[in-house]
Structures are given as structure tokens and as C-alpha cells.
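Why does residue order matter? Because the sequence determines the fold. Keep that principle in mind as you read this record.
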Amino acid sequence: MSRLLEFQVLKNTRDLGGMPAADGRRVLPGRLIRSGQLAGLSASDSARISSLVGLVVDLRTYGEVAEDPDPRIPGVRYVHLPIVESFTEGVSREEESDRNLVSRLIFDPEGSWRYMCSMYRKFTGDFCVSQYARFIRMLTDSPQKAVLWHCSVGKDRAGIATVILCEILGVPREAVIEDYLCTMDYLKGFVEGERQSILKAVSAEKALSGAETEAISESVDYLFGTHRDYIGAYYEATDRKYGSYDKFIRDGLGLDDTDIGTLREKLLE
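Structure:
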């Protein structure tokens, strides 16, 4: 499992160091960090990021960056690499995206689940794959300090970036999936905050029955959480498009044996 890094403000910031990988090796600690957005960093968090990180890769949309820009941290290079071309309900977190999604699906748990599965399948689209390929290429030229990548809360776009990287490094599939799922352990407060905010907003407009309250709560879990079905939908879509995950790495991301070997030598111990 990735290891949670304690920060004053930052949440769901984790070091992949120690995860089992190819040939009995493990991911080097202090080199690969996944996170949620950096907006609102405290001074102490900023100083710690500056000491740990050499490159920040922001996977959010242009709209998200405009609403909540990352701070510029001394000594840290910043790259904006949007994984989706425009706001995507349930994945990107612009205010408009959230409003549209909640208004359509908040009383429909099954529809919320189907929607999120479909969103994960879309991570195999050509634009997303080309952007993830750019991200992986950055790691071959990364500084000696860590690379930190993030989206809004660090579960979907950053989660798939982590899945792709772990697969390249030879992390066992079940360990990859378990690390993806444990995101929920670190986002309980975020999900509960979304649940209470939505319940308050909806109940201000209408009296909610017990069944409606339960439906909202379940929909929130689907829309703002991580689930095995989502990552399963992603893997299935990848296999359907490319034939296997190995072919995705080679044909989709454009990596050959030399590229894979270079990444493993650089990032494993």
C-alpha cells in the first residue's frame, strides 16, 4: 500500500514507496507521490512540499485550475497536464460540473453507479491515453526529488495515473486495486462533507422522506467515492480496446522494453 504523508492541510497525499514491484523489488520511497489539489496550502505544508518535491503535475481541467490554482512553491517545477479535455461531471470538480451531476443523479443510486463506471471506461479514450503517456514520459526525466501528481481530491484521474504507473513498474494487480480502493479511507471526511452539504441543500427545498434521504446518501457514496466496479470497468475497457494491459502499455502509451526498464531502474530498489 502507498503510505499516507501527514500534512497540516493537504489530504490524501501518499508516497508509493515500499509497494511490491517487478523482480522482487519495491518502489523507491520519496520519489512518487499522489495527492489531491494543492490549493489552500498552509505555510508549513508548502515548506514541506518544497523539501520533498521537484515536480508537480496538475491533472485537472483548465476550469478547475482557474477556480483553485495551485500555489507556486519555491524550487518546484509545475506542469499542467489536463487528463480530460473539458469539465466532466463526476470526474472534474468545477462548480458547474458538480451542480449538473447532483441535480441529475442525486436521487438515483443505480444511475450514479452506472455513470461512474462509464466515466472510468472513458479514461481509455485517445485523448486521456495520450495525456497519461505524456505523464509517464515525464517520469523518465524527473528530478532526484519526488514527482507529485494530483487532480481535485486525488481519486479518479490521479488514481488512474497511479494504476498505470504501478502496472508499468510490475506491482501485482491486486495490490494496485487495493491501493486504489484504500483512497476511501482517506476521503471519508470529504465524502461525509459532500453528503451533509447536499442533504442540507435539498432539504431546504423539499421535505425528504426516509427513502429519499437514503437514496441521496447512497448516490453520494457512488459519485464521490471509489469502488471496485469502477476500476474493474477501467481494466475491462482497456483490455477490450488493446487486447491486454501489456499491449496498452506498449501500443497505447508507446513504451518499449527499454523505456520500461529505464523506469524500473529509476524508480525501484
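The chain has one domain: 3-254.
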